[in-house]
Amino acid sequence: GTNKTFPQLAHHNFFFSENQHKHFKTVFEKQELPEDPTLYVVAPTRTDPTKAPTGSDNIKILPHIPPLREGSNITHEDYVALKERCLDKMERCGIKGLRESIVVEDLLTPVDIEKMYRSNRGSIYGVVTDWKRNYGFKAPKTSSKYKNLYFTGGSTNPGGGMPMVILSGQKCADRIIARHPLS
User: Fold this and answer.
1) Buried (b) or exposed (e) across 9-25, using 16+ Cβ within 10 A?
2) pLDDT of 14-35, one tens digit each?
3) What is the pTM of this model?
């Protein structure tokens, strides 16, 4: 949370790495934290002013980073250093005074997310896509083995993130009701 607003931010914002090829190689092949991360930044007060006190902003900064893996050397201090690089990047991109305006801050790492939500490898968007196994597609919505087993959540279509997970649950309920009407 900040003690001022940043009107140049929309509800949804992307700040891309200057070298996307290097960024993706660092995150997905080397499985390291990027020096120049791509950021997804959410400022929900743009569409719901009640999400922060008047004259303030509630900003979420989500850098693209690798999921947890066994044998990783990424430490909590590395995530703190990444947070600083994210703030530096936003200021370079015109969000001046962001760091000094922060009055409330939460830093969640994949370790925290895995513990809090039991998410797969600390991923906020469900099971990490593996092109070698599933060609980039999400898990199916129903079991091919058990006809009454349905899947929902961030690892199924329509995808990850809270709105899509809720939609996934609603779509799953619709499929069950259509297959098993009450009357």
Assistant:
1) beeebebebeeeeebee
2) 999 999 999 999 998 999 999 9
3) 0.77
